[in-house]
């Protein structure tokens, strides 16, 4: 079977973590991607569930994050926040961090 090269772009930190994990598994990154590709072709599906949150889920997370921050401010756990700090907290909540 002939071989062909493929280029994949990803975040450099993610690549570093993925390379290290593959090394722990005792395989190369190339082998891991080949296993993934073979599984997709064999099963004719992505071998894990991919879901997008509903708009309601995203709104609920944003509201929960806002309420949590508001409570922290009310309890004096956060003396004050700039608009940039508030927006960063909202961004992190949307990313699920």
Description:
With 97 residues, the protein is mainly alpha-helical. The protein folds into two domains: 1-50, Arc Repressor Mutant (Orthogonal Bundle), CATH 1.10.1220; 55-94, no CATH class. Helices cover 63% and strands 0% of the residues. It is built from four helices and no strands. Helix 3 packs across helix 4. The longest helix has 20 residues, at 55-74. It is elongated, with a radius of gyration of 21 Å. The termini are far apart.
Beta-strand residue percentage: under 5%
| SS elements, strand count | 0
Counted up, domains total 2
Distance, first to last CA: 44 Å
Q: What's the story with the biggest beta sheet?
A: none
Number of helices: 4
| CATH C-level label of the largest domain | Mainly Alpha
| Whole-number mean pLDDT | 87
* CATH architecture assignment name of the largest domain: Orthogonal Bundle
Helical fraction equals 55-70%
Would you tell me the structural class of the helices and strands? mainly alpha
Radius of gyration: 21 Å
């Amino acid at each position: 079977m002939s071989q062909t090269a493929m280029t994949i772009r990803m975040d450099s930190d993610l690549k570093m973590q993925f390379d290290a994990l593959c090394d722990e598994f005792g395989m190369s990154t190339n082998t891991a991607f080949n296993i993934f590709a073979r599984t997709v072709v064999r099963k004719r599906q992505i071998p894990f569930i991919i879901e997008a949150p509903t708009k309601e889920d995203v709104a609920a997370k944003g509201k929960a994050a806002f309420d949590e921050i508001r409570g922290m401010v009310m309890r004096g756990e956060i003396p004050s926040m700039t608009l940039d700090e508030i927006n960063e907290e909202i961004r992190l909540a949307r990313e699920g961090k």
